[in-house]
Amino acid sequence: MNWVDAGRWVISSVFSHRFRSLLTALGMAVGIASVTLLTAIGEGVQHYVLDSFSQFGARIIAINPGLKETHGSGGLLSTVRPLTLRDAQALKQLAGVEKVVPVVQGSGTVEFNHRQRNGVILGVGPDMSEAWNFKVAQGRFFSGDLEDARPTAVLGYTMKKELFGETSPLGQYIRVGGQRFRVIGTIEEKGQMLGMDLDDTIYIPAQNGLQMFNRESLMEINVVFSANTSLQHLEKSIMQLMIDRHGREDVTLTTQNDMLESMDKILSILKLSVGALGSISLLVGAVGILAIMTTTVKERTAEVGLLRALGADKKTVLHLFLGEAIVLALMGGALGLLLLFMLTGVLHMALPGLPVTFNVFFLGLALFVSALIGLIAGVFPAGQAANLDPIKALHEE
Amino acid sequence: MIELKHLEKKFHIGDQVVHALDDVSLRIEQGEYIAVMGPSGSGKSTLMNILGLLDRANSGDYLLDGINASALGEAERTRLRSDKIGFVFQSYHLVPRLTARENVELPMMLSGIPVKQRKKAVDDVLDKLNLMDRAHHSPNQLSGGQRQRVAIGRAIVMKPSILLADEPTGNLDSKSGEEVTKLLESLNDEGITLMIVTHDPTLGARARRQLNMLDGRIV
Ligand SMILES: Nc1ncnc2c1ncn2[C@@H]1O[C@H](COP(=O)(O)OP(=O)(O)OP(=O)(O)O)[C@@H](O)[C@H]1O
Ligand SMILES: [Mg+2]
Questions:
Q1: Beta strands of A57-172 (E only): which ranges?
Q2: For residues B184 and B35, what is the distance between their CA atoms, to the nearest angstrom?
Q3: A310, B89: Cβ pair inside 8 Å?
Q4: What are phi and psi of A94, to 5 degrees?
Q5: What is d(CA B66, CA A335) in angstroms, rounded to the nearest whole number?
Q6: So what's the pLDDT on residue A75?
Q7: Interatomic CA distance for residues B206 and B208, integer angstroms
Q8: Helix (H) and strand (E) counts in chain B
Q9: Which of A302, A310, A6 shows the shortest CA–CA distance to B156?
Q10: First to last CA, chain A
Q11: Which of A112, A151, A192, B154 makes a 20 to 30 Å CA pair with B66?
Q12: What is the mean pLDDT of residues A333-342?
């Protein structure tokens, strides 16, 4: 039997029970639509998170005090030398380094005219605005040397709104952690990242931050390097510099790649588990196909006997029934994608912000998976048909 | 030509053994017209199933046009069956979702014969059986006699050397039955070997040779 004839036979069989086939395919469709939609949402969230992460710029290396392995082991921690503004200063001299941002973080009360707000206080250097791509909305950012200690502050969007409303904060004096600072600028709205409000923040010079929190060491130094510098090379020279300055290797370097990678790993697992959840509904679709194919084989027992008498071998019978199961499943898959497009349309109208992305690979995969499910669900009933005794089968009515 | 030598066929039902065929030896020349008769359970259908290569005897030899069919594997028996044997069943066994024409075409389709060749052979058969105007009807639009004619068309489209008909007129009124019998006889006149199982003595008497069976033996 050639392929075209087999295909026509299979299609005519499936369409001889339009309604029943449609219902079976629909069961499959719901499964395919939900798996694809859930995976797409997972994919969308992944893109969204990674995008918001990389807004800090891709060519960035974070330097933290202490070695990765010694984190938490107090005994060794004492030998770690503090990460200082001098270190930051030295890093700035390295070839290929464009910007250096010392970071020290704490929280405290910010006051203006009897209004108070608790927020994140970040001690940073003058390079921060450009290094992190946090654009200045009003006024200016810190200028001068990264070791300078001047009582000046820049407000994040939320902090500014809460303390000053619509009036301009420029030149006003506020109290940060009990000390007087003059507001010189504000940062544009950054939104949220992973549930953290990036705008409920006040920026002060790193030197002031160290004093305010009574710390010897910076929490982190961010280094932005030029496009024509190799990451590996720079990592090496940063490490060499730190060893020269501290006498031993006592800092950890984290590149944007490392961060994105671990983030990507977590999100992939999330995506997979969501997809796995959806595949339960695929199982339901598969059981539907199994049930309908078993019924079909029962109904057409005499026909199987006839086919055998007319010269079809077991394999041909097997293939014909497998073909039916696969066509049913593929119809389900195609219907599922149709359903998916309608659902996405509705979703886009209802929740325009929800990131949902599809790629052709996924859609192709959905169809492939449908066919595979049809094949698996069809194996048992098709095998039953193929193994029927033709004489007995011919006597069934 | 068909030769059966000491065929035995037993069925086991629980502890009981039914001797469906008991030392059956038989020689059938090409072009013979044979009626197989006998009471219910005497082994007529069992004999037809073995002749039609749908079943195997427990012992004995079956030679079909010089080929020892008992020695062949399943695949070869399937091929031999589609080449040399045509079946006509009491209940027609037409595929309901195919047209008359497609039903006739079915054995050629299953054998993978190219469409062009198929068209000519099917046209010839439909023409011969006066079914041209019914070609695009589905089985449930046809009378019993017409259905059996379509089934006969399907049985001869591969030009088999032998036609096995197990009570072909059992479901038909006497007029349609007569038509179908005439059709089968005219095919026999053209040279095909015709074997009909029947309970009808007058029908049986029309054959040139009668086989009477009793308890699995030819008497
Ligand atoms: N598959 C089977 N399993 C068990 N016994 C069987 C089987 N097929 C046939 N038999 C038995 O073999 C014997 C011969 O059966 P067969 O069908 O050949 O008779 P028959 O002459 O065709 O009868 P009828 O005129 O009723 O069609 C019967 O006793 C029957 O019960
Ligand atoms: Mg019988």
A1: 60-65, 97-112, 115-124, 136-139, 152-155
A2: 12
A3: no
A4: -65, 145
A5: 56
A6: 44
A7: 6
A8: 7, 10
A9: A310
A10: 26
A11: B154
A12: 91
Running DSSP on this structure, what letter comes out for residue B22? E
Residue A16 near chain B (CB below 8 Å): yes
Give the pLDDT of residue A34: 86
Element (H, E) at B217: strand B217-218
**ipTM confidence score:** 0.95
Domain ranges of chain B: 31-58+72-218
Q: Measure the CA–CA gap between A332 and A24, rounded to whole angstroms.
A: 8
Angstrom distance (rounded) from CA A79 to CA A73: 11
In order, the DSSP letters of A298-346 are HHTHHHHHHHHHTT--HHHHHHHHHHHHHHHHHHHHHHHHHHHHHHHHH
**CB distance B12 to ligand 1 below 6 Å:** no
A186-228 pLDDT per residue, tens = 999 987 766 667 899 999 999 999 999 999 999 999 999 887 7
Residues of chain B scoring pLDDT < 50: none
What topology does CATH give the domain B31-58+72-218?
Answer: Rossmann fold (3.40.50)
d(CA A42, CA B193): 70
Tell me if residue B190 falls in helix, strand or coil: coil
Name the token pair of B180. Answer: 């179908």
Q: How far, in whole angstroms, is CA B45 from its chain's centroid? A: 11
Tell me how many degrees the CA angle A254-A257-A258 measures, rounded to the nearest 5: 45
Q: Which amino acid is at B30?
A: Q
Residue matched to tokens 């007129």:
B169
Confirm or reject contact between A396 and chain B (CB < 8 A): no
Nearest partner of A340 among A21, A16, A8, A39, judged by Cα:
A39
Q: Rounded distance, CA A179 to CA A152, Å?
A: 11
How far, rounded to the nearest angstrom, does the alpha carbon of residue B20 sit from its chain's CA centroid? 19
Q: At what angle do helices A3-15 and A18-54 cross, to 10 degrees?
A: 100
Chain A's closest residue to B157, CA to CA, is: A310
What residues of chain B, 79 to 108, have a C-beta less than 8 Å from chain A?
79, 81-83, 87, 89, 91, 93, 95-98, 106-107
Q: For strand A97-112 and strand A220-225, is the pairing parallel, antiparallel, or unpaired? A: antiparallel
pLDDT of residue A120: 92
**A391 alpha carbon, closest ligand:** 1
Proximal ligand: closest to the CA of B13: 1
d(CA A385, CA A383): 5
> What 3-state DSSP class applies to B167?
coil
Which of A13, A311, A391 is opposite residue B78, by nearest beta carbon? A311
